[in-house]
Specification:
By secondary structure, this protein is mainly α. It contains one helix and no strands. It is rod-shaped.
């Protein structure tokens, strides 16, 4: 019976030692994990803001270039449609004289 009590006491000492060792390790691991999660969250926010800023800047740049191109084209007069009137009432007119043999 005495030996059994000693074994139980030694097992409890080992169990307490393991708990005293593992619990701080787990607390440190959880703290490190939380710190890494915060860093990753901040990094994701920074990257998202950067992508949004690049997209907005590129859209503004394209709009500016389109405006400048429209100003350049406004210097010239263009007509979008060309009208040609042919008088077909007189059938004796020759359009292509080289084919008349």
């Amino acid at each position: 019976m005495k030996d059994l009590k000693e074994v139980v006491e030694k097992v409890q000492q080992v169990d307490d030692g393991v708990n005293n060792l593992i619990i701080p390790l787990l607390k440190d691991t959880i703290a490190d994990s939380n710190r890494h999660n915060k860093r990753l969250f901040i990094l994701n926010i920074i990257l998202s803001i950067s992508i949004l800023a690049i997209a907005i800047f590129s859209q503004l740049l394209v709009a500016y270039q389109n405006t400048k191109y429209a100003e350049f084209l406004s210097q010239f007069e263009f007509e979008s449609e060309v009208y040609q009137d042919f008088d077909t009432s007189d059938s004796s007119q020759i359009i292509n004289p080289t084919l008349n043999n």
